Amino acid sequence: MRLDDMPRRLFVCTPSRLTSFVDCPRRYRMTYLDRPILPKGPPWAHTSFGISVHNALKAWWDEPLARRTPARAAHLVERCWVGEGWRDDRQAARYRARAVEMTGRYVEHLDPAQVPRAVERQVAARTGQLGLSGRVDRLDERDGELVVVDYKTGRRPLDADDARTSLPLALYAYAAERTFRQRCRRVELHHLPTGEVIAAEHDETSLTRQVRRAESIAEDAVGAGDALAAGAHPDQAFPPRPGRLCSWCDFRRHCPEGQAAAPDRRPWDAIGDDDEPDEPGGPVASTNRRG
Ligand code: SF4
Question: Which of 206, 254, 259, 275 is the most exposed place for a label (fewest CB within 10 A)?
């Protein structure tokens, strides 16, 4: 029971936590509430690919200016390579070469002297209901304002809506502005396979709308948690939301509805192997390592 004049406890969360609840309440429960955590499936090749590239780009900015070259980026991908989830060494080597080429090509278009304000940086902010935090791939500073940069390494082409409607990107901008006390309205998706930059400009209204959306999701998640604590059946409080993406869910083996909704996939299926027929769709390899 809560007295009306008692301060409400903040819901501490990352953007990933919020979107996880929206995507599938059962998966949210298994990820964030159940203890001990149920065993997950094997590592995914597309996740390894994304992590390798993200880590190489972070390391590239840590290099002294003279070494921020495409050749160095290629070397760093080799050094940061994550060898999990691949069918065999041959497939891993082919995709490592692709990551090397893609990352080298991407940094060719960067000004190595234009050091970002932050790389792989935690940003945080409070609202009336939320204690938000999350890790931003890169924060640029342009014309006195911060710009959120999010790397994408998946095959799926992106469009303007991906940046404009993204809850995580808006929350990163909101949190970055408060962490650095500097205006941050522009968010960008950098799609490395094509070199495309998909940008969106937020204003006070659109950021506020996304924060309200986040608070509303948090309210639902808290309500579901309260119901569970009060004795509701886990599947009533946190129902499964089966769909096409159940193929890629880490908790699929514990979820009959998910298994019925989408076929089993091998850990490398989302990567689109050249040796096998290409599978359209599948998850976008954004790695999702952070919030
Ligand atoms: S398999 Fe699908 S329905 Fe089941 S927990 Fe995962 S995302 Fe939810």
Answer: 275
Nearest CA to ligand 1 atom 3: 242
Q: Is residue 152 part of a domain?
A: yes
Q: Which pLDDT value is given to residue 272?
A: 74
Q: What is the DSSP letter of 240?
A: -
Sequence-distant (≥ 6) Cβ neighbours of residue 289 within 8 angstroms: 51, 54, 135
217, part of any domain: no
Per residue in 7-58, pLDDT (tens digit) is 678 999 999 999 999 999 999 999 999 999 999 988 999 999 999 999 999 9
Work out whether strand 145-152 and strand 130-142 pair parallel, antiparallel, or are unpaired: antiparallel
CA 220 to ligand 1 center in whole angstroms = 18
Residues having CB closer than 6 A to ligand 1 are 24, 26-27, 240-242, 246, 249, 251-252, 255, 257-258
Q: Counting Cβ atoms within 10 Å, is residue 266 exposed (0-12), middle (13-18) or buried (19+)? A: middle
Rounded Cα distance, 137 and 125, in Å:
17
Radius of gyration of the chain (CA): 20
Would you say 184 and 203 are in contact if contact means Cβ atoms under 8 Å apart? no
Closest-CA residue to 21 (of 163, 214, 260): 214
Q: Confirm if 254 and 261 have CB atoms less than 8 A apart.
A: no
pTM of the complete model beyond 0.70: yes
CATH of the domain at 159: 3.90.320.10
Strand partners, 118: 139
Residue 203: domain span: 118-211
Tokens of 164: 């404009």
